[in-house]
Design goal:
Keywords: Signal
Number of helices: 10
Signal peptide: 1-26
Strand order of the largest sheet: 2-1-3-4-8-9
CATH topology of the domain at 35-137 and 189-260: Rossmann fold
Order of helices and strands: HEHEHEHEHEEHHEEHEHH
CATH architecture of the domain at 35-137 and 189-260: 3-Layer(aba) Sandwich
Mean pLDDT: 90
Pfam family, one: Abhydrolase_6
Largest sheet: 6 strands, parallel
Helix content: 25-40%
InterPro entries: AB_hydrolase_1, AB_hydrolase_fold, Sec-Metab_Biosynth_Hydrolase
CATH superfamily of the domain at 35-137 and 189-260: Alpha/Beta hydrolase fold, catalytic domain
CATH class of the domain at 35-137 and 189-260: Alpha Beta
Domain AB hydrolase-1: 36-252
Shape: globular
Number of strands: 9
Amino acid sequence: MPCHHAHAALALASALCLALPATAHAAPAAAPLRNIVLVHGAWVDGSGWKAVYDHLVADGFHVTMVQEPETSFADDVAATRRVLDLQDGPTLLVGHSYGGSIITEAGVHPKVAGLVYVAAHAPDVGEDEAALGRTMPSVLAMTAGAIQKTPDGFTYLDPALFPRLFAPDLPVARAEFEARGQVLAAASVFSTPLTAAAWQSKPSWGIVAGADQIINPELERFYYQRAGAPITTIPGASHSVYESHPREVAAVIEKAARSLGGEMN
């Protein structure tokens, strides 16, 4: 081999050797958290998340809604776990109202990286939301006849009162439509004690609906403070805050997702 060729080969080999350690020891870039699962509350279904979904999808997130049956707390948690099983990586789990109890129990799933509570309950192990609600009664709790029950033990909001209590900041026609399309919830879902509390070990965020009449806003604040969750209060928002203020709700969800998974590309 000519001398100058040998020198060139040695120089190239040396350069490669110097480059290899840097490549081998380079820290991998943080993987963006793209998966978000949305869990609705009692008496409604996942379609109420549509505006929040649109904001999140427009910003590049992969979003799935759980359609829990509201037949029992165990059934609703199982429905949520089933959707979590389908996710392809770390996931942010979001719950509204009674959905907060569901994500608290289901959030111990290994794919769940964090939790967002939207005007939601967040009981501890051994607690249930019905008992906690009695410690800080809501307008709903003090409105006689607002919660109706079928002979076989399923509950619903009096359709005549639904627009005023659940969704006073939505267009009346829309609120009335939701009142007539309620998913009846087994009364037992509200009084089943939790066996797990994911907020004890996973990062959490909380949204307080400032004019909530279904859950006392002070109870929401108590839950989030106990969980060590950053709190966002949306003044004047009703219990249907995820529908009436979707941009603000989506912004909190996105902030949580980015803090867990780094900036998205």
